[in-house]
Amino acid sequence: MWWMYTLVGVLALIAGVALGFFIARKYMMDYLKKNPPINENMLRVMMMQMGQKPSQKKINQMMKAMNSQMNNTDK
Q: Is residue 65 scored above 70 in pLDDT?
């Protein structure tokens, strides 16, 4: 009978770890969508630090590329 309790305990542990992983993943994706890790000003500063003169067109292209990449990872 003790093996049944052990089996139930192990299965509950595996289910809890899996459920916790998916809940944490969903939470982080929502957080990053609401608070993106980089914005236009940060991108402009990074480009200037690399010695490039950032044009608005180039910044828009890079932001669009990052946003499309972020949206592709959601699916």
A: yes
Confirm if 54 and 43 have CB atoms less than 8 A apart. Answer: yes
Phi, psi angle pair for 71, to nearest 5°: -70, -30
| Cβ contact 33:71 at 8 Å | no
Half-sphere exposure of 10 (CA within 13 A, CB side): 6
pTM for this entry: 0.53
Nearest to 56 by CA among 67, 74, 70, 44: 44
What value, to the nearest 5°, has the Cα angle with vertex 39 and ends 60 and 49? 85
pLDDT at 9: 96
The pLDDT value recorded for residue 40 is: 86
- Residue showing tokens 């542990």: 13
Which candidate, 47, 71, 68, places its Cα nearest to that of 57? Answer: 47
